[in-house]
Specification:
One of its GO terms (molecular function) is signal peptidase activity. This protein folds into 2 domains: 61 residues, no CATH class; 100 residues, Umud Fragment, subunit A, CATH 2.10.109.10. It is built from 3 helices and 6 strands. 38% of the residues lie in helices and 21% in strands. The chain is of the alpha+beta class and 180 residues long. A 6-stranded antiparallel beta sheet has the order 1-2-6-3-4-5.
């Protein structure tokens, strides 16, 4: 085959190694993000340690696009706390304030009623049909802090999927073309 054939084989081998290296790098980035997320879940005790406020229902306290950091604790939930909850039959969690806590004497379990600060009525209309109160298993976390407006990136990518695909494509292209 000679010198030229060996050179072509060597270039192909280098290209394959480079492609494998890029794939491993991308895999490490994704794996690192998942490990960080799982670590945050363990540290905060919340199944979703970070959420984005998606509506204006909590203004002026929290604006659409704010990122909330959540935690869970064994302490009883109190009126005035801001919680993130999931309701049966709904996919997207809701960020609202606890306005009333009811403790059942027979079970010792707390039931909570929530309301958005910017809403005129409580959240019973948002709960599952026939549901009047939230129980502990509905609560995903309690607000521990926030970053204003940083979540707009998520909102824009959700509302305009083409932007999400452009960003993912650009990041993929960056990974593929980087020279390490």
């Amino acid at each position: 085959m000679g010198w030229f054939g060996d050179t072509v084989d060597s270039i192909k081998s280098i290209q394959i190694r480079h492609a494998l290296s890029q794939a491993v790098s991308l895999g490490l980035i994704v794996t690192s993000a998942l490990i960080i997320w799982k670590g945050l879940m363990l540290m905060t005790g919340s199944e979703s340690p970070v959420v984005v406020v998606l509506s204006e229902s909590m203004e002026p306290g929290f604006a659409r696009g704010d990122i909330l950091f959540l935690h869970m604790s064994k302490d009883p939930i109190r009126a005035g706390e801001i919680v993130v909850f999931n309701v049966d039959g709904r996919i997207i969690p809701i960020v609202h304030r606890v306005i009333k806590v009811h403790e059942r004497k027979d079970t010792g379990e707390d039931y909570v009623l929530t309301k958005g600060d910017n809403n005129s009525d409580d959240d019973r209309i948002l709960y599952a049909p026939g549901q009047r109160w939230l129980q502990k298993h509905h609560i995903m976390g309690r607000a521990a802090g926030f970053l204003p407006y940083v979540g707009w990136v998520t909102i824009i990518m959700t509302e305009k999927p083409i932007i999400k695909y452009i960003i993912i494509g650009a990041l993929g292209l960056l990974v593929i073309t980087s020279k390490d």
